[in-house]
Amino acid sequence: MPRSVNAVAARARRKKTMKLAKGYFGRRKNVWTVAKNAVEKGLVYAYEGRKQKKRNFRALWIQRINAGAREHGMSYSQFMGKLNAKGLELNRKVLADLAMNHPEAFKAVVDAVK
Could you tell me the pTM of the whole model? Predict the structure, then answer.
Protein backbone atom coordinates (compact mmCIF):
# COMPACT_ATOMS: atom_id res chain seq x y z
CA MET A 1 0.00 0.00 0.00
CA PRO A 2 1.42 3.44 -0.87
CA ARG A 3 2.46 5.83 1.85
CA SER A 4 -0.21 8.37 2.69
CA VAL A 5 0.98 11.94 3.08
CA ASN A 6 -1.31 14.89 3.57
CA ALA A 7 0.54 17.08 1.09
CA VAL A 8 -2.33 19.53 0.71
CA ALA A 9 -2.42 20.45 4.41
CA ALA A 10 1.39 20.53 4.66
CA ARG A 11 1.64 22.85 1.66
CA ALA A 12 -1.06 25.13 3.07
CA ARG A 13 0.75 25.31 6.40
CA ARG A 14 4.02 26.22 4.70
CA LYS A 15 2.30 28.81 2.51
CA LYS A 16 0.84 30.44 5.61
CA THR A 17 4.30 30.72 7.21
CA MET A 18 5.92 31.93 3.99
CA LYS A 19 3.25 34.63 3.71
CA LEU A 20 4.22 35.83 7.21
CA ALA A 21 7.89 35.93 6.08
CA LYS A 22 7.09 38.30 3.22
CA GLY A 23 9.31 41.38 3.42
CA TYR A 24 12.14 39.65 5.25
CA PHE A 25 15.69 40.02 3.88
CA GLY A 26 17.68 37.36 2.04
CA ARG A 27 16.94 33.67 2.54
CA ARG A 28 14.58 34.47 5.39
CA LYS A 29 11.87 35.26 2.85
CA ASN A 30 12.12 32.30 0.48
CA VAL A 31 13.86 29.30 2.10
CA TRP A 32 11.43 27.24 4.16
CA THR A 33 13.64 26.25 7.13
CA VAL A 34 15.17 29.73 7.49
CA ALA A 35 11.82 31.47 7.04
CA LYS A 36 10.13 29.17 9.59
CA ASN A 37 12.72 30.03 12.25
CA ALA A 38 12.54 33.75 11.45
CA VAL A 39 8.74 33.81 11.61
CA GLU A 40 8.64 31.86 14.89
CA LYS A 41 11.17 34.25 16.44
CA GLY A 42 9.23 37.22 15.09
CA LEU A 43 6.03 35.96 16.69
CA VAL A 44 7.86 35.58 20.02
CA TYR A 45 9.07 39.18 19.78
CA ALA A 46 5.55 40.33 18.89
CA TYR A 47 4.12 38.59 21.97
CA GLU A 48 6.78 40.09 24.25
CA GLY A 49 6.31 43.50 22.61
CA ARG A 50 2.62 43.55 23.48
CA LYS A 51 3.56 43.13 27.15
CA GLN A 52 6.39 45.68 26.99
CA LYS A 53 4.10 48.24 25.37
CA LYS A 54 1.97 48.35 28.52
CA ARG A 55 5.06 48.81 30.74
CA ASN A 56 6.50 51.51 28.50
CA PHE A 57 3.30 53.53 28.42
CA ARG A 58 2.88 53.34 32.19
CA ALA A 59 6.48 54.56 32.62
CA LEU A 60 5.83 57.42 30.17
CA TRP A 61 2.65 58.44 32.01
CA ILE A 62 4.49 58.45 35.34
CA GLN A 63 7.24 60.68 33.90
CA ARG A 64 4.67 63.14 32.56
CA ILE A 65 2.71 63.25 35.82
CA ASN A 66 5.97 63.72 37.75
CA ALA A 67 6.98 66.64 35.51
CA GLY A 68 3.56 68.23 35.89
CA ALA A 69 3.49 67.75 39.66
CA ARG A 70 6.98 69.20 40.11
CA GLU A 71 5.88 72.39 38.36
CA HIS A 72 3.51 72.83 41.29
CA GLY A 73 6.07 71.98 43.98
CA MET A 74 5.20 68.31 44.53
CA SER A 75 6.90 65.04 43.71
CA TYR A 76 5.11 62.23 41.91
CA SER A 77 4.88 60.03 45.00
CA GLN A 78 3.53 62.84 47.17
CA PHE A 79 0.98 63.74 44.50
CA MET A 80 -0.24 60.16 44.01
CA GLY A 81 -0.36 59.57 47.77
CA LYS A 82 -2.51 62.65 48.35
CA LEU A 83 -4.64 61.82 45.31
CA ASN A 84 -5.45 58.38 46.75
CA ALA A 85 -6.02 59.82 50.23
CA LYS A 86 -8.57 62.28 48.83
CA GLY A 87 -10.30 59.43 46.99
CA LEU A 88 -9.91 60.96 43.53
CA GLU A 89 -9.99 58.05 41.12
CA LEU A 90 -8.12 59.34 38.08
CA ASN A 91 -5.86 56.85 36.35
CA ARG A 92 -2.32 57.63 35.22
CA LYS A 93 -3.30 57.80 31.54
CA VAL A 94 -5.83 60.56 32.20
CA LEU A 95 -3.51 62.44 34.59
CA ALA A 96 -0.66 62.32 32.07
CA ASP A 97 -2.96 63.67 29.34
CA LEU A 98 -4.07 66.51 31.63
CA ALA A 99 -0.47 67.32 32.57
CA MET A 100 0.61 67.45 28.91
CA ASN A 101 -2.34 68.95 27.07
CA HIS A 102 -4.46 70.72 29.71
CA PRO A 103 -2.12 72.28 32.29
CA GLU A 104 -4.88 74.44 33.82
CA ALA A 105 -7.02 71.34 34.45
CA PHE A 106 -4.02 69.54 35.95
CA LYS A 107 -3.37 72.55 38.20
CA ALA A 108 -6.98 72.27 39.42
CA VAL A 109 -6.38 68.62 40.30
CA VAL A 110 -3.17 69.52 42.15
CA ASP A 111 -4.97 72.27 44.05
CA ALA A 112 -7.72 69.83 44.96
CA VAL A 113 -5.27 67.40 46.56
CA LYS A 114 -3.15 70.02 48.36
Answer: 0.81
